[in-house]
Amino acid sequence: MMRAVHGSAVLYPSDATSAAALVQVMAGRPGISYLRTTRGGYPVLYQATEALAADGIAARVIDLYSVKPVDAATLRAAIEVTGGRLVIAEDHCPEGGIGSAMLEALVGTGQEQPLRVAHLAVRDMPGSGTGAQLLAAAGVDAGHIESAAGGLLGNR
Hints:
Elements: E1 9-11, H1 16-27, E2 33-35, H2 47-54, E3 66-68, H3 72-81, E4 85-89, H4 98-108, E5 116-120, H5 131-138, H6 142-153
Parallel strand pairs: 1-2, 4-5
Antiparallel strand pairs: 1-3
């Protein structure tokens, strides 16, 4: 919803250190800024990367803390290295989230490159459970990310 507000910035820190830094950025930024935070601790972002590396698959993790504006240059550089393969994992519904923001930013660069995308997102109403249980139930935990990456490579 906040991405649709003209001139707004939408930020989503992955941890407490990032949250503190982004609050400072927001304080010095003119206009509307929105900071989305998550309750409780979350597993380390790089678990799936470590599991893929153990399988001999090099992966790049981009902590997309700025949902708007999106760092399209970083995304473009990453997909050039990965041959257009992109796994998007978000603990949010797919509509209006990180996935659509990333794809809009890539299309907006005007550079054509075929993409193979696996978009993992919360597609059902979540129930109760621990953070790890909810991530697994939604299909956005390290195991699901690893499987999606392998699928893009034809390994799974």
